Amino acid sequence: MRIYEEADYRAMCRRAANILSACVILEPDCVLGLATGSTPLGIYDQLAQWCARGDLSFAAVHSVNLDEYRGLAPQHPQSYRYFMQSHFFDRIDIDPANTELPDGLADDPAAECIRYDTVLRRAGAPALQLLGLGHNGHIGFNEPADAFALGTHLVDLTASTISANTRFFASEGEVPRQAYTMGIAGILSARRVLVAVSGADKADAVARSFAGPVTPQVPASILRLHPDVTLVGDTAALAELKKTGVPFERV
Ligand code: F6R
Fold this sequence. Notes:
By secondary structure, the protein is of the alpha/beta class. It has helices at residues 9-26, 41-52, 80-87, 109-123, 159-165, 184-188, 203-211, 235-243; strands at residues 2-6, 31-34, 62-65, 67-69, 99-100, 128-131, 153-156, 178-181, 193-197, 229-234. It has a 7-stranded parallel β-sheet, with helices on both faces. It has a 3-stranded antiparallel β-sheet with strand order 4-8-7, with helices on one face. Strand 9 (193-197), helix 7 (203-211) and strand 10 form a beta-alpha-beta unit. Helix 1 packs across helix 2 (41-52) and helix 7 packs across helix 8. The longest helix is centred in the N-terminal third of the chain and has 18 residues, at 9-26. The mean pLDDT is 96.
């Protein structure tokens, strides 16, 4: 595992955007696995700026997102489709037809999970999967559990995740209780995984994920079995991991 320590959120985003853009430059028609949440906002902003300047093109890229709330329409401002459109897709030259997310309004959750796994299979292995990290170690919406869920599945969100996501809604009652998420097999199918973390509030989850035991109780810990993981974090987010003696690659 490669670990890059950056001074702050801005530098972390620039580093992550650099890695992502290198991937697109080397393989312009690649598949990118994408994430939502606060962490990637600066990464998407940096990539969109490079695209606007003509330094980067997503015209041939396909994207597959990790997750979507169940029950939210694509036009709902808190849906992940809306997030991706407004923060990234509408700002770059990607073909909208080449962007995939689970359908939050699907009538039949089981059928939707099968459909999304078919989408992922047809798209082929992502060249890179971008991940944020939940405070409880979740990746996508793979929450702590007794076993790793491999395929796309519908999740009951934990109290910790609902409370963390309340900041985006008018009240906690409005936060959807369920979400579709790519499973662990989908995430691990990427040729390269890029985990972006920022802030002292993530420090504990980072240490548990990358220095503790591999366990479904800390879903991100499974990433330690992936052959090509890059962790990009700011100093605050990496503080606890550093205490464990994990070697750092500084640039
Ligand atoms: C979002 C996702 C989640 C977030 C995680 C961290 O698509 O899959 O796992 O990456 O909840 O969220 P932020 O970045 O808001 O701290």
